[in-house]
From TrEMBL, chain A:
Annotated GO biological process: regulation of DNA-templated transcription
Domain IBH1-like N-terminal residue range list: 10-77
Domain of life: Eukaryota
UniProt KW 4Fe-4S keyword: no
Keywords per UniProt: Transcription, Transcription regulation
Protein name stated in the entry: Transcription factor IBH1-like
UniProtKB/TrEMBL annotation, chain B:
Record keywords, A-Z: Growth regulation, Nucleus, Transcription, Transcription regulation
All residue ranges annotated as the BHLH domain in the record: 5-59
CDD domains xrefs: bHLH_AtPRE_like
InterPro entries: bHLH_dom, HLH_DNA-bd_sf, PRE
PANTHER family, per database record: TRANSCRIPTION FACTOR PRE (PTHR46446), TRANSCRIPTION FACTOR PRE6 (PTHR46446:SF11)
SUPFAM superfamilies on file: HLH, helix-loop-helix DNA-binding domain
Entry's localization field: Nucleus
Example of a GO biological process term: regulation of DNA-templated transcription
GO cellular component terms, semicolon-separated: nucleus
Record protein name field: Transcription factor PRE6-like
Lineage start: Eukaryota, Viridiplantae, Streptophyta, Embryophyta, Tracheophyta
Source organism: Durio zibethinus (Durian)
Molecular function as annotated in GO: protein dimerization activity
Amino acid sequence: MNSSHLNPSSSLKSRFTTRFLRALTRINARKPISPSSPREIFQRYRRIKVAADKSMASSVRSRRTWSRATLWKLRSRSCLQLASLGRRRSVKTSTITSRQAIMKKTSHEIENKTTTEEDHQDRFVGQADKLRELVPGGEAMDLCNLLDETAHYIKCLTTQVQLMRKIVDFYSL
Amino acid sequence: MSSRRSRSRQSGVSRITDDQITDLVSKLQQLIPELRGRRSDKVSASKILQETCNCIRSLHREVDDLSDRLSELLASTDTDSEQAAIIRSLLM
C-alpha cells in the first residue's frame, strides 16, 4: 500500500504534462516586442520554472503538505507582485532567528555532555534542519512528516525533471 | 544500536518512536541513487539526510537548467496545440 504513494503513476505524469504544456503554450503566445532580448529570455525562464513547479504541485493537488505549501507560496507571490512592488516583508528573518535560538541552545548543551552519541544526534538534527529549508512547508513539519514528505517530494521532482528533459529533447530536434 | 533517549530538544515530537524514524530514513536511502546499494547499518542517518539534501539541491538545479533551455528553445519555435498533442502521445 505504501508503494502506491511513492511510485509516480502514469496519471500523475499525464496530469503534469498536460498542465505544463498548456502553460508553455500560454507563455509562448505572448508576443513581446523583443522576443530574444536577454531580459525577455530571463523572464520567460522564470515563468517556465514557475509553471513547471506549479504544474507538478497542482497534479499532486492538496494531498501533500509540500504541494500545498508550493501552491500557497506561488499564489501569494503572484498576489504580492500584483499588489505592490515595494513591500517585501521577509518572513525568513523570524525563522532564522528561531533556528539560531535552537542552535545556540544546542551548542550550550553540547558543552556539558559531549559524547559521540550526542554528536550523532546533533548532526542528524542539523541535517534535518537543512532539509526543512529545502522541502516546501518543511519548517512546520515534525520529523516523521518531514521524512515522509521528503520521500514523496524527491519522487515527484525526479518525475518532473524526467518529463521536462523529454520535452526539451523534443523541441531540440 | 544507539538509543536516543535524550529527546529534550525535540520534546514536541516525543510520541514518535526510533523505529519509525529508522524506517523512514531507510526508505529515503532507497531513493537516493548514491546510497541505494549500501547496507543500511553502514550508512549513518545523518549521512542519509545529507545526501538527501544534496539530491534535492541538484534536482532543483536541473529544473532551473531545463527551464533555461526551454526558454531559449521557445524563442525560436512556435508551439501550438497540435505539437502539444504529439508530445503527450510520445511521453505516455
